[in-house]
Design a protein that fits this description.
The protein has 11 helices and 9 strands. By secondary structure, the protein is an alpha+beta fold. It has a 5-stranded antiparallel β-sheet, with helices on both faces. It is elongated and about 160 Å long. It has 4 domains: 79-130, no CATH class; 134-205, 2-Layer Sandwich (Alpha-Beta Plaits), CATH 3.30.70; 212-291, 2-Layer Sandwich (Alpha-Beta Plaits); 307-373, no CATH class. It comes from Acanthoscelides obtectus. Residues 1-25 are annotated as: Disordered. This is Gag-like protein.
Length: 378
């Protein structure tokens, strides 16, 4: 009995030990699971924090890129926009000079405007002096089928031997227009052609036109009033000048309420107007400047004719010289068709990496110089 009891006690003790071990093992497993979950949670939190830091970094980087992009965009301005803006600034300066009642402000504006005018006047006078000396000669073949007038001329006449200075050559239908440096060169060239080529060519000096000027920002109602020229002469006290020295040519819109008035004047009257820089028109003081009309073809991008008179069958993009309209252009590169054609025809080396609308285009500048050479500035 005692042995049996002892055995039962031993079995009970073993059961207690197993139960204790089982509980300890269970507790250990739970603690391990808890620790594992804690580490997993910490890892996930770190990943989330890393992602948040990365997102914040991307947001900051994107903000910096956006600011840099806006800075670049703000710094890229087309030359034509700059020129237009400068024109508006000059016009605004003229208006401020006319309307301001503050002497100090007026003096500052006049000082600035005067400096700009003097600089521009000096530059323009040099250009005009050179153009004034230029003389143009129209040379045509009596044989209408002859398209090689320039080649025939080169074979017969040597400018170096005759001391003839030629500024430019311009091809026209069945002939050429030569622009000579001065009247002496013109006379020598005419004599040489008549002596060497005789009846094969006709030679005529091209008559120059009176200069044109534009009066800016004139009220529409004032331009429609009768006796406009007489009012201009009377209000501005031009003295010796009369209606023979000025006539209106045309007008074109400046704003909803104002027009630009194009006038044709005598060379001496032009000089007086340039010196003044303005004309009083009713209750306004309007700026006045030289005006040269540039006729441009918007089909082929050339100069000297309009689209309705264009002889070319294909269009030429003014941006890239491709055979498509400007609105359909997808090229990232600019290419001037006028300079390309000029290089091909005259073996020149004009830069072509610009739009044909660029005011710095060599062919455009050459065309403007040619037009000015046909104007009698003095």
């Amino acid at each position: 009995m005692t042995r049996r009891k002892k055995k039962d006690e031993e079995e009970q003790q073993e059961d207690k030990d197993e139960s204790y071990l089982s509980k300890n093992n269970a507790n250990t497993t739970i603690e391990q699971e808890v620790q594992y979950l804690k580490k997993l949670l910490e890892t996930k939190n770190e990943i989330i924090l890393d992602k948040e830091r990365y997102i914040n970094q991307l947001v900051n980087e994107n903000r910096r890129l956006q600011e840099h992009y806006e800075l670049i965009i703000s710094s890229i301005v087309d030359k034509e926009t700059i020129i237009t803006s400068l024109g508006k600034i000059n016009e605004r300066v003229e208006k401020i000079e006319a309307t301001t009642s503050y002497t100090r402000c007026n003096d500052v504006i006049k000082s600035y405007s005067g400096a700009v005018k003097e600089s521009k006047k000096s530059r323009d006078e040099k250009i005009v002096d050179k153009i004034n000396n230029t003389q143009n000669l129209m040379i045509k073949s009596t044989n209408k089928s002859n398209s090689n007038v320039l080649e025939d001329l080169k074979k017969s006449i040597d400018p170096a031997k005759s001391n003839i200075c030629v500024n430019s050559v311009r091809r026209v239908n069945n002939g050429i227009i030569l622009s000579c440096e001065n009247e002496a060169s013109l006379s020598k060239l005419m004599a040489s052609i008549q002596g060497e080529l005789g009846a094969n060519f006709t030679v005529n000096e091209i008559k120059k036109y009176r200069p044109r000027m534009v009066i800016n920002n004139v009220e529409c109602a004032y331009t429609k009033s009768e006796g406009l020229i007489e009012k201009i002469l009377s209000q501005n006290e031009f003295g010796i000048f009369s209606s023979d020295d000025i006539k209106t040519v045309t007008t074109f819109r400046c704003s909803e309420s104002t027009l630009n008035v194009v006038i044709e004047v005598s060379p001496k009257f032009r000089k007086t107007l340039l010196d003044r820089g303005h004309i009083y028109m009713g209750w306004q003081r309007c700026p006045v400047r030289d005006y040269v009309r540039i006729v441009r073809c918007y089909k082929y991008s050339g100069f000297g004719h309009m689209e309705k008179n264009c002889i070319h069958s294909k269009v030429s993009c003014p941006l890239c010289a491709g055979d498509h309209l400007e609105k359909n252009c997808k090229s990232a590169f600019k290419n001037c068709s006028n300079c390309v054609n000029h290089n091909s025809k005259f073996n020149t080396q004009f830069d072509t990496s610009h739009s044909s609308k660029d005011l710095d285009c060599p062919t455009y500048k050459k065309h403007v110089t040619y037009l000015k050479s046909r104007i009698e500035y003095e």
